[in-house]
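Action item from last week, closing it out:
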Amino acid sequence: MTNPEHADPVKESPAAAEYSLAELMICAGAEAFRNDGEVLATGIGLIPRLAASLAMNTVNPDLMMTDSEAWLLSEPNPVGQREEGFVQKNETWMGFSRIFDNVWSSKRHAMVGPSQIDRYGQANISALGVNYDQPKIQMLGVRGFPGNSISHANSFFVPSHNQRVFVKGECFGRCWQALFRRS
């Protein structure tokens, strides 16, 4: 018999078998969009995107989502291959100027999964490798993220908690060097 003081509540709980860790993270991520109202959700990565979709279908029906091109959707697009004849539920066209209207007026909430974070909360979403000019891995990149994220809510989704993700020193531009010097 397990000592109740040392029991793992996840292993011991009968409810633990009812959902996966990914499903739990999606539900927790959806909570980040609760009470946001009519904002543009940007979920970068599978779990953040599913979290935004779940929020739109449950706790925040006013949440706006795009098809990642030029349309605002009435309901989230499914992930993966779509069945033949699929037609996305377009609500309205979203021109480039409207995107910036949302971004600069605090009408956006981005959820991203940075590859590395330093103790100051700075994130690396650009590159990993010994040399920034010739990275081993090129990632999404900042593409305006630092400048436009100052105006709206941002949530980090960090699935792996280890020293390769949470690095010593500073991130912006140098954390990738620190990582590979230690390796």
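Closing note: The chain has a mean pLDDT of 79.
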